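Why run this: before we spend reagent on co-expression, it is cheaper to look at a predicted model of the complex and decide which construct boundaries make sense. The entries below are exactly what would go into the expression plan.
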Amino acid sequence: MTKIVKLLILACMFIAAHASAALTIEITQGMEGAIPIAVVPLGWRGTGAAAPENIAAIIAADLNRSGRFESLPDRDLVAHPVTAEQVKFQNWRMLNVDNLVIGQLEETTAGQYSVQFELFDVFRGKRLTGATIPAPARDLRRVAHYISDLIYETLTGERGAFNTQIAYVTSSGNSKNKSYTLLVADSDGYSPQTILTSKQPLMSPSWSPDGRQIAYVSFENKTAEIYIQEVLSGSRRKLASFKGINGAPTWSPDGRELALTLSRDGNPEIYVMANDGGDLRRLTNSAAIDTEPVWAPDGKRIVFTSDRGGSAQLYRVSVTGGPAQRLTFDGKYNAGADISPDGRKLAMVHGEGGRYRIAVLDLDSGLLRILTDGQLDESPSFSPNGSMIIYATGAGNREVLSAVSVDGRFRQRLSLQAGNVREPVWSPFGK
Amino acid sequence: MKYTLGSFIVLALMLVISGCSSKGGSMDSGAGIEDKGTGADGGAVTSGAAGGSDYSSYSLTDPNSPLSRRVIYFEYDSAEITDSDQELLVMHASYLVGNPDQSITLEGHTDERGSREYNIALGDRRALSVQRIMELNGVAAEQITIVSYGEEKAAAEGHSDAAWRLNRRVELVY
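The model came back. Tokens follow.
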């Protein structure tokens, strides 16, 4: 096992302008062997004294958060080249920096910008990629994440997931007067947008595959109901409000159907319905609890939680119904699964010895690996590139979010300044 | 159907006990439960004495009324109802039978451990256990509404056994 280095980078620079609702990110467990990279502050050409966003800082933070890179601190930058001609590779080689990012932010017209960047291989003295991207001021953070994705993919061969979002639920107040909110934020915790507020619990957000809609459970009418809401417009419609449980909605990979849990027939069972609420069909039939359905990426099978064997374990069933196959055997309690984008791994809440941690089951080998070290970890959700898992955990008396690399070697914490954060779900890739 | 026999026994016991005492008299559950065999025997014969176990005119607002107890608790990952809680539920059932216009909501809750939607299902199972006992004791299905909040509405904050014990519950809401 690789020796673990504690980085403990308190990311003050991440605190957004709207600090009260922003998530702050703290890297709690770093990784030896992270690739050293220098991201030079971008040159600025515009009317203001300073650039409207520190693009380089956003990119450096993204790369650090992946666990795969370690960016050079600003104070260690030996030079501040803006163009390729200004780069002296030998200087960067002496710092043992493998890669270098430079670029320029230009104000083209009032409020309109052009972001230009280049990525170099320092040892070969070679330009690897680059681009020039026009953007209005409000999109500059998104452009920075997009550049992070390009850099990440160029250097690792794996698609980056920085230009994505997370949805999550917060609660605040005491047991007599609680307030629940459903929010959407950038994957680095910035730009949180409240999309729903309620005095009653909100649960189980699920992104549509095109990232435009979120299905969720709301108790606003003192009973569980499933809604589908447009993320941008905020308009919504009620999908399911049968007698009893209406829970755990998840979208099929093609977005045409949702799997959900209903107890309308007296017992929690897995159902599938069209996204307009029609064509309801039942997949499971047991006297036990069946819930928490998630779709395999091929859309043909559904993994769910059932206690039909005496305790909660994960099972798999065809979307056309039929017998279910048990998938988990290690541990007393395995529930709340998410399936990796390649369909080969299951993340779950794994309960054993009084602790509830996030574990990943490799479906090919059958090996189960515990990734986290909390007491009450829950709600694992894969990043769309499959490299990270975001989940909810306790910190003191609060609930916070954490993310862990799929190999368990790298961990970071995302926390709100106040209140509890939970049920994170990572969006699909942006379109 | 796990609770069928148990609840009939309790019902029978109630009939016997209340048959011997005036309304509002002693409801010593300890003594009653120890005498299950005899109670069941007698109950089968004296079912006509049902009027004696009538709680329909009890007050829902009097804090000294047995009906003021409206929370029952559960073991971890269990929906099993204790004997003394069954007795309490039979009293509430009697009230509801005598007041058919009165409705009740059974709110199922769990502690925070494990995944949230599984806990919704577990809270539902607990509320269903309570519903079954009430229906077996004559409450009309239309009078009962069930909602499970899972772990979403904790009665006690904190991450201790003591808090968890208070959160694994069904609340009877009139």
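Chain A has three helices and 32 strands. Chain A has a mean pLDDT of 91. Bring this page to Monday's planning discussion.
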